[in-house]
Amino acid sequence: MGCGSSVATNAREAQRSRLVVEGHDCNVPALLQDCSVAFLEQFAAAAEWKKYEASSYVINGPNTFCCMFFISRGEVSVHDTGKQTKNLSDGDHFAETSMLLNEEGYTIAIANTDCELLVLKREAFFTLLEAWTKLAPALFSNMDDRDQKHILEKNKGEGSNGKPFARSNLQRKSTKLMLDEIVSRMAEVQSSEGQEHLSRFVEVT
């Protein structure tokens, strides 16, 4: 019995370490390492697989992002206005903040090597958000301080371009779920600045 249990556990762990997207064997994003096998299957069904050659643009210039990217294999350099260039590799993700806020951003992302990326569109993200509520705080905790503050300051439900934060009923419901999770996480922040952002945020949600 103990041996059978061990085999089953090893099988589940093997399933959690790989996923197949559009027929391609891919690495599981670091953001999703703690989710269930069932959720990984949902993610795999929702994501798109794309390949980029070394030195090609993944993102080039101003854009209103409708998706975020996960690096399955390879290296990508990402530069956002006012931020340091980030060199990302297997398991990392990018373009999530602009996607969440539905606002225009200026980002340049270049494939440093041949890359395999998983692309998750905004509609699919909000659907997955309801399937695994830990996705919101996991995503939020991986953002830098500037992006976290930016998310909380957008408390009127609109991006800088005036476009609504959530356009469909599903997005509105899922966005509220995500914001509730973020507020819960921010409640742990003891600094006066953190509490100020939290109190402003709670008033509008």
UniProtKB/TrEMBL annotation:
Record InterPro entries: cNMP-bd_dom (IPR000595), cNMP-bd_dom_sf (IPR018490), K/Na_HCN_channel (IPR051413), RmlC-like_jellyroll (IPR014710)
GO cellular component, one term: HCN channel complex
GO biological process, one term: sodium ion transmembrane transport
Domain named Cyclic nucleotide-binding: residues: 31-129
Entry's Gene Ontology molecular function annotations: voltage-gated potassium channel activity
UniProt superkingdom: Eukaryota
Pfam families (UniProt xref): cNMP_binding (PF00027)
Name of the protein: Cyclic nucleotide-binding domain-containing protein
Organism: Guillardia theta (strain CCMP2712) (Cryptophyte)
Taxonomic path: Eukaryota, Cryptophyceae, Pyrenomonadales, Geminigeraceae, Guillardia
